[in-house]
Amino acid sequence: MRLADLGERSGVPLATVKYYLREGLLPPGRRINATQAEYDESHLRRLRLVRAMIQVGRIPVATVREVLAHVDDDSLGLTVRLGAALWALPHPAGEAPGAPAEAAGPSREVAGPSQEAASPSREAADDPHRAAADLLVDELLARLGWSAARELGALSPAHRALVTTLATLHRLGYPLDADDLLPYARTMEQAAAHDLDRMEQLPTPREQTEYAVASAALFEPVLLNLRRLAQCEESNRRYGL
Amino acid sequence: MRLADLGERSGVPLATVKYYLREGLLPPGRRINATQAEYDESHLRRLRLVRAMIQVGRIPVATVREVLAHVDDDSLGLTVRLGAALWALPHPAGEAPGAPAEAAGPSREVAGPSQEAASPSREAADDPHRAAADLLVDELLARLGWSAARELGALSPAHRALVTTLATLHRLGYPLDADDLLPYARTMEQAAAHDLDRMEQLPTPREQTEYAVASAALFEPVLLNLRRLAQCEESNRRYGL
After folding, report:
1. Distance from B123 to chain A by nearest Cα, in Å?
2. Which pLDDT band, with edges at 50, 70 and 90, does B19 fall under?
3. Got the DSSP string for B189-208?
4. Which one of B86, B215, B228, B237 makes the best mutation probe of the A interface by having the most chain A beta carbons within 10 Å?
5. CA distance A196 to B238
6. What is the rounded distance in angstroms from the CA atom of residue B171 to the CA atom of residue B179?
7. By three-state DSSP, how is residue B33 classified?
């Protein structure tokens, strides 16, 4: 198909498709003459993935490029390929080093955040909140029997981000314990298995890795809004409309 | 306690505490002389909540102020008070009207996003993707028996954001069905009940509403990172490290 058809079939505006091509997020088509190129189903699939990562996942262009480099690396075995692509995704850490939400507020004359970000003690090994969060994550993973996650530990960005988030909550007076986290973790475990079952039905490692990235990055707003709806439902159930 | 003690006990830098006071996010202390005021445990609790909303929840200052106005409104019954505070929180919609992720990318010469945002067809009633998402959410809520959520429908920001997200995923070629969503929704339902059980142990409606806001806004990064860890664990389990 031609470039215009690619835009048409994907629902992505042509100017955006051209931008993705220039940025290398979409591989070039097969030249058929001096001014035209031919695109196929793999371009359409890639275009949809890029669009969804940027529009739904709010992932920065540079990060999308890095993730796709791993997705496209045919020299990697499936495990490393999946791992590299997923680890390159952003991990919400629940801690704003530069406190962007405050900086974006109406008053910009905030001395606090920068001062605080400069303080080395928050990341130090003797931070009692971080130590508590480390212990909590370790207990949780042990009870779950997630041995790979325990072994990888802080090498894994999700592990690091989880510890950082729990340390921040602990510091702010909202401590969680393993019993709070276990039911959520069990659900996520079931969902991950279901996800990989679906992934394995795809024919090539590249398509499988694309699927894994899409599923990891795109389902998050769905999940968060289901949680908000459930809270609203349960509150109405107990206290009336 | 004095202002300095408030900073000390909360772990929030003094300049940030003063900023919150100026912005009205923290109520003034009780004046004890021309230059000093006295703060109590309710200030400490409020300071921790504000800090957590901004730092962990990445919620803009103006939104925090709006949420707190509902939390502090003693004229409201618990149901409306909870509802108003929770509905004022940001709801990730999985659709970027101005495509901020792209605008923040290395190249800013993007004609696509603004052109696209101007297109009225994406929100139109005859958008087949939105129609599919509407049907899907309705089927899901019916199967869950969430009657309040069905009745409120698009009045609820979580409902609207969920439909928008699913419509975007559908448009981009990642359709989900009710069977995909049900297990997640069931878990969120259990968690919401557990949350309200804990909330009801608090002594006053104000503290209860504070707790509900904290729980809604702060647990999200925890949840998302548990999901990433589970994906990594399951992938290692199947394909080796």
Report:
1. 14
2. very high
3. HHHHHHHHHHHHTSSSHHHH
4. B228
5. 9
6. 19
7. coil
